[in-house]
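BUG-479 | component: ligand-complex export | severity: low

The export step for zinc ion jobs runs without errors, but we want the raw record kept on the ticket for reference. Input record follows.
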Amino acid sequence: MFIPESNTSTTRKDYELTFYVNDINTAYTRTLVEYDANGSMVNTFEYGDTLLARETTGGRESYLYDGRGSVANITDSSGAMVASYTYDTFGTPKLSGMSTNPYSYNAERIDRTTGLQYLRARYLDTSVGGFISQDTYLGELLKPLTQNQYIYTMNDPMNHIDPSGHWGILKSIGSAVVSGAKTVYNATVSGIKAVGSAISSGWNAVTSFVSGAISTVGSWFGSTATTIATGLAYGGAIVGAGLIGVGAAIGAYVAPMTVTQKAQAALAEVKRKFCTGDMKKADKRGVAGIAVFLDPGHGGINPLTGVRDTGATNERKGITYYESELNLKTALYVKEELESKGVKVYMSRSDDVFLFQDTRAKIANVVNADVFASIHYNSNRGFPFTAVQKGTTVYYPSGRDDGSAAVASSVSNSIQTGTSLKSKGTQSSDRIHVLNETAMPAILIEGGYMGGDIKYLSDDANIKAIASGIVQGIVQSSR
Ligand SMILES: [Zn+2]
């Protein structure tokens, strides 16, 4: 199928031929692939609920949306922002940055030559706030506004969109906002499907969660040891949900089943293992009789802001170091060593995915871990700005008599023994959200400063040494 849509003078012809492969199985036809007159691919578009990404000869770009569902930012394959858009009331885009992306206001296509927006039945001229041709709908006698056959969304573009180009088929923005949020969420935590309903802490919640309604909103996290789907709270309502899947069970579900079947099977597995008590002690606690929950801080892209959560960053010898990656690397070393000692290990994430703070704690509570350890590295921001700070600090929640302080000091001591990092000791805090929500002894390790300690931290052997310190500290305090 092809739609002659754009003209250009640079080719010194009166027209430019573009071939479109369109998806007509949706409410509003959308373009999948675009070819030039020679049959070379120009753009390939990827869709979820809305447009997610564009593949061009220049690389891959992803779309991030604002609240009403208009394209707000474009990121390249590394997650860096390359362009952003703001709009006036009727949708004339203002671009900052560089992109040949044709989609912007309400995620609809703008012809780059004419500046007109393609809305299927008609073209919209956002600069005058009206269509350039008459609506084929003649309007209604008792609704005067409908008899102006050029106006857009009854002159109420703040609250409506018009993907059809006909006045009678307006959509209100509310659903666009929700689908925008879902789209961002799907785009950032991709590859994974899942499971609805809120999860709060405790077995009862798991039971009702399992038997409750399942909606396929969230996402699957396939990982080797522990599988976690996380949810997204948006505007007070929980859109996605959390789910703990256990072990390799998940892997087996992946291929032949539908998303809903996968969700149900995983939930059944959770229920079987956690709620019916048939999980053997060794499964729950390891042969050492301890279950440790590791929480590598940061990671992924926050679906509410569209911003990548890397934590602290620094550059050394041309290499950029991200705290989120160091945290995960450290946690994986800790996991390996703990498992070699027969300790059962759960992880909040084992990949570069985003998790909200309370989700991290709730998952730990649900698996009923004995110790919660969040792993971070510090940034040098704060006062005094000029001082180069160095060293390890281990935090624990204040006002709790549950052994958190003892785990913190044990870990702090063993890191000091096993590394050449300066020890800044332990510190209690009532401001660390992820610790406050936990129902077990909990610590947060700031393994070193991404600034002052970067040379030390850039050596894998040293990360391993920090990990060993964490392992010894946890194991000794759990005896
Ligand atoms: Zn951090």
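Assignee comment: Attached the raw record above. The CA atoms of residues 23 and 30 lie 5 Å apart.
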